[in-house]
Amino acid sequence: IPIVAMTAHAMTSDRERCLEAGMDAYISKPLNAHELLQVVESLAPKSAPGASAPSSDLQPLKSASFDLDDALARVEGDKELLSQVISVFLEDSPRLMTDIRASIERGDAETLQRAAHTLKGAVSALSAHRAAQLALSLENLGRGGNLARAEEIYLDLDREMNALREALKAFVSEITCAS
């Protein structure tokens, strides 16, 4: 499995360090959909002869949890790539939510800030604006060290994440059925 380093550090030495550490490619933030697509395509195995292209006859999925049009624009309309990004998100997001919950229970503002920041980036990449706003609120509480409202915001975020996961699963299912 190819490994792509993605970091906010854009210095040439950072790129070299990542590649020397065994990464197959390197991308710096802010994420550029065209650059990401080029890197993924260069590392992805080529399709088998006779493999069919994904159908573009999908009915638009409407969801209050994420903006499908915006999410697709981030990956230049590549529904298969978006489906892969969603699959990774669905696998990783429960751990982030557990980390956020545990940090609130422990009163650990630093861990809350870090976990909420990571989740904010993930949901922003999927154009899940409400979840991103709630994660930002938790990140700011963690940064400020005042967790008084953290439980309340976490409960809103948890509800939003459950709705988001269902909407994302529906999208992936639609993609899978269409191909």
What does it look like?
Residues 47-61 have low confidence and may be disordered. By secondary structure, the chain is mostly helical. The relative contact order is 0.13. The protein has 2 domains: 1-43, no CATH class; 61-179, Up-down Bundle (Four Helix Bundle (Hemerythrin (Met), subunit A)), CATH 1.20.120.160. The two termini are 23 Å apart. It has helices at residues 12-20, 33-43, 68-74, 79-106, 109-125, 129-144, 150-178, and strands at residues 4-7, 25-28. The longest helix has 29 residues, at 150-178. A two-stranded parallel ribbon has the order 1-2. It is globular, with a radius of gyration of 18 Å.
For the structure shown, list the relevant keywords.
mainly alpha; Four Helix Bundle (Hemerythrin (Met), subunit A); 2 domains; 2 strands; 65% helix
CATH class of the largest domain: Mainly Alpha
State the secondary-structure class. Answer: mainly alpha
In the CATH hierarchy, the architecture of the largest domain is Up-down Bundle
Question: How much of the polypeptide forms β-strand, as a percent range?
Answer: under 5%
Largest sheet composition: 2 strands, parallel
Task: State Rg.
Answer: 18 Å
CATH superfamily of the largest domain: HPT domain
- Indicate the low-confidence ranges by residue numbers: 47-61
Q: Could you tell me the number of beta strands?
A: 2
Side-by-side strand order of the widest sheet:
1-2
User: Helix proportion of residues, in percent?
Assistant: 55-70%
Number of domains: 2
Could you tell me how far the N terminus lies from the C terminus, measured between alpha carbons in angstroms? 23 Å
Oligomer: single chain
Number of helices in the DSSP assignment: 7
CATH topology type of the largest domain: Four Helix Bundle (Hemerythrin (Met), subunit A)
